[in-house]
Amino acid sequence: MISSTSMISNYVPLDVIDRILLRLPVNALIRFLCVSKEWSALINSSNFIKKHLNHSIETNSDRTLILKETFVNPPSQSRKGRNPLIRKCRKLPSEPMDTPSGSLCYSCSSFGFGYDPSNDDYKVMRIAQFFEGVLREFFEVKVYSLKSQCWKKIEKQLPIKEICSAQSVSLNGAFHLIVEQDDGSESILAFDLANEKFRLYRKPSNEDLASLEVLRGCLCFIECCPEIPTSNDFWLMKEYGDESSWTRIYKIESDAVLWNIDYFKPLLFPKNGKKVLMEGVSLIWYDIKKKRGKKVKNRSFPKRFKTATCIESLPLLDGDNVIDPRQKKNKRKR
């Protein structure tokens, strides 16, 4: 008996099948792994995984909003690289901190996860911050490569005085954080994952209370005003690396929303520019023209949650140290 997939392969060239599969979402591709050995080998190949990711980035398609319930379980001490769409993760090896000599105290660590397109590698950055007294601060930067599966210490010294926020965002093969320089001014620090060099960008405003996000594939700067709760200015760096391209795209006035919080996280900004989806006390659609926010109601939402937007992709489909929770459950049932 000739299988239907063999008949498809006889009539449809494999390169055409490849182009069709590239346009499908991840959940469909996971189902199609069972179609045939030929399709499974194609979808599992590193070349296909890379092309599928590039297609999603270039077409700005296959975006997924993830809601993570908070304040339910204590945070885990272990670090994992997780792909929630295929429900697999890779446990990262623990890495000790190399405390600088002298009577130093550990302050905090900042973590970031991003893609290095130049080396086709996913990397985790850890910046440990130490201080001695109130005047001197020291930093240790280490990067973990999922391809080489090892940590590497970055010997270059950070050109900064202090990290203002532990939150980092990944864009264009670089991590970004808001930092304070030696003269007291604040800037955006970028760490290039390919050449492992640091560079500084000027902020679009001098407001001290601020945050970074990625919106519409651009670096997004959110300016918060502590004197006026719920007042946020949103800026986009429309040409990455060009400080003159900072553009204010919209502002949330203090009386525009009913929820008294300091910061709204932008999640989705459609091309028509009429509304923006944000995370506040819940998910909120904010009408830019009417200057009004409307809460998104859904009974399936947890009471408290954090959100993240991700591009659908297939990394961690297989490889060393990959953990598949579904396989663990099947073993328990047996």
TrEMBL record:
Pfam families: F-box, FBA_1. This is F-box domain-containing protein. SMART domains: FBOX. Transmembrane segments: none annotated. It comes from Castanea mollissima (Chinese chestnut). InterPro entries: F-box-assoc_dom_typ1, F-box-assoc_interact_dom, F-box-like_dom_sf, F-box_dom, SCF_F-box_component. Residues 6-52 form the F-box domain. NCBIfam families: F_box_assoc_1.
